[in-house]
Write a structure and sequence with these properties.
Elements: H1 2-16, H2 21-32, H3 38-45, E1 52-54, E2 61-67, H4 72-87, E3 91-97, H5 103-116, H6 121-130, H7 137-146, H8 151-157, H9 161-177, E4 184-187, E5 190-193, H10 198-203
Parallel strand pairs: 2-3
Antiparallel strand pairs: 1-3, 2-4, 4-5
Helix pairs in contact: 1-9, 2-3, 5-6, 5-9
Amino acid sequence: MRYYKRMFLAVIITALSCLPLKAEMTIQELFFDNSKPFHLKILNVIPQDGIVQIGDDSAENTIIEFMDYFCGYCKKVHPELLQIANERDDVRLIFLQHPVLSESSKLLANMVVAANKQNKGIEFHNALFEVEGNLNNAKLKQIVEDLEINSAKLNIDMSKEEVINTVTISSFMASGSGARGTPTFFINEELVVGYISIDRIKSLLK
C-alpha cells in the first residue's frame, strides 16, 4: 500500500510539472493538508478548464463523477443527475474526465476541455450524452455547429499540451481515488464505484 501511494504521488507530481505553478503547488494541499475533505481538494489540483460544473460553488452538497463519454452507465445516470440538480439548489454536479474505454474516449475528453475554454463545456458535455445511437463525426460536427462553438479554435485547443495534460491529471486523480472504471462518484465524502440509482444518490445528500 505504501509503495502504491508513493508511485501515485510520483505520477501526479510528474504530470503536474507540465502545468502552471498554481497547479503544481496544490500537490502539497492534496496530500498533507487536512483542512478540507479529499474530494474537494481534487478540485484544487485539476485546472479549471478540466472541471465541467452545474450548480453554485457554495452548494452544500457536491457530487463528483469521473466519467467516460462511451460509458453506457455514465449515459444512463446522466439524466438522473440532471434531475437532482434541477430539483435542488443545494447540489452542484462536477463532471471530471476519466477516458478509459478507448482512444476515442480521450479524443472526446480533450474536446470537452477545449470547449470549456469557450465557456461551452457543460453544453458540449450534455449534448454528447444526449446523442441517440452511435456517436460519429457527423453528429459531433452538428453538436459543434448547434452550440456555436468556434471549430477552428476547438481543433487547435484540443491538441494543446495543457489540454492533454489536464485530461491526464483528471484520470490519474480518478485512479488514485479508487476508480476501477466508470462511472465513479464522490457524493460528498462517500466514494461510490459503479452505477448508482437516483434514490441512493439522494440518500447520500445532506
